[in-house]
Backbone:
């Protein structure tokens, strides 16, 4: 008689804990900005000046401005109305069939690489031509 009661109690406890886990609410608070690689981002749009003053290492950001020069390899100089920053862009991140020059307004989505010594830069994950 004790055995069936123990089994029934165990089954009830197990089903209650499983249903509690299935109904557990997810996190609904603030989160770190992310970038999904398909053009969607919760990252803030910042100016270069804001990024250099307040940015933290590995922070996802969006910058709006222009690539003003190619400084060699994957490195370019980016500028907006507030200043300049070095960016690293792999060739596959340039939009296909679009020519970008020093007069093209663009949005860069990427990850800020803050350096204590030396120059900080943005590792670009995506480039979008800005709509006017």
Residues:
């Amino acid at each position: 008689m004790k055995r069936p009661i123990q089994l029934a109690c165990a089954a009830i406890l197990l089903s209650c804990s499983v249903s509690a886990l299935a109904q557990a609410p997810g996190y609904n608070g603030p989160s770190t900005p992310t970038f999904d690689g398909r053009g969607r981002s919760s990252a803030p749009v910042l100016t270069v000046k804001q990024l250099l003053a307040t940015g933290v290492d590995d922070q996802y950001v969006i910058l709006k401005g222009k690539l003003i020069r190619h400084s060699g390899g994957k490195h370019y100089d980016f500028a907006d109305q507030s200043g300049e920053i070095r960016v690293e862009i792999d060739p596959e991140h340039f939009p296909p069939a679009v020519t970008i020059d020093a007069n093209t307004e663009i949005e860069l989505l990427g990850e800020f690489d803050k350096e204590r010594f030396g120059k900080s830069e943005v590792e670009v994950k995506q480039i979008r031509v800005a709509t006017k």
About this structure: The radius of gyration is 24 Å. Residues 2-22 form the longest helix (21 residues). The helical segments are 2-22, 48-54. The longest strand covers residues 60-72.
